[in-house]
Automatic annotation (TrEMBL):
This is Mitochondrial fission 1 protein. It comes from Emergomyces pasteurianus Ep9510. The keyword Transmembrane helix applies. One of its GO terms (biological process) is mitochondrial fission. InterPro entries: Fis1, Fis1_cytosol, Fis1_TPR_C, Fis1_TPR_N, TPR-like_helical_dom_sf. Coiled coil: none annotated. It comes from the Eukaryota. It is found in: Mitochondrion outer membrane. Belongs to the FIS1 family. It is a single-pass membrane protein. One of its GO terms (cellular component) is peroxisomal membrane.
């Protein structure tokens, strides 16, 4: 059973960025707003209703559209469900893999799974080196990994410093006895 809904990525246009089947067209690649702009609840409900209506015979396009809407959500549980649905499409519909790669990368990025996000994004860039969306997402992923790495180093350094201070106090106390 197919869907009369438009292809989700065809419908998404932000300023000068036009997302078409994996980002083949676009004058600008600033995608940071995509990470912060969920669908309105009524819009997501339309996609959910179509998905549920098709039931056991849900079409690949309907599943993709619903997964796309879930990925755009600010709710972690919905994002996880979107990634799960896209993973199913990626595994079962070989002809739709390329279309899934970007949104699998974006969904994993939003969930904080930066290794998975990078893996999917790099697969897309291997096939489409000129994909501006994927290149921009790579920058976001790399920046986030670097930032979290620096935070991790700072935390580890703080823990080591605290351990050194505590150790020094213990040693000083032991000498007094």
């Amino acid at each position: 059973m197919g869907s009369n809904l438009p292809y989700a990525a065809d419908a998404e246009s932000y300023g000068t960025l036009l997302i078409v089947h994996g980002g083949e067209r676009g004058e600008s690649a600033d995608i940071s707003h995509l990470c912060r702009s969920p669908l309105k609840p009524a819009e997501l409900q339309v996609l959910r209703a179509q998905y549920e209506k098709e039931g056991d015979y849900v079409g690949v396009q309907t599943k993709f559209n619903y997964a796309w809407g879930l990925i755009k959500s600010n709710t972690r549980q919905e994002q996880q469900e979107g990634v799960r649905l896209l993973s199913e499409i990626f595994k079962s519909a070989r002809e739709r893999r390329r279309e899934c790669l970007y949104y699998l990368a974006l969904g994993n990025y939003k969930l904080g799974n930066y290794g998975e996000a990078r893996r999917y994004n790099d697969l897309l860039l291997d096939h489409e080196p000129g994909n501006l969306q994927a290149a921009s997402l790579r920058t976001l992923i790399d920046d986030k990994v670097a930032k979290e790495g620096l935070v991790g180093v700072a935390i580890l350094g703080g823990v080591a410093l605290a351990a050194g201070v505590v150790g020094g106090l213990i040693m000083k106390g032991a000498r007094r006895r």
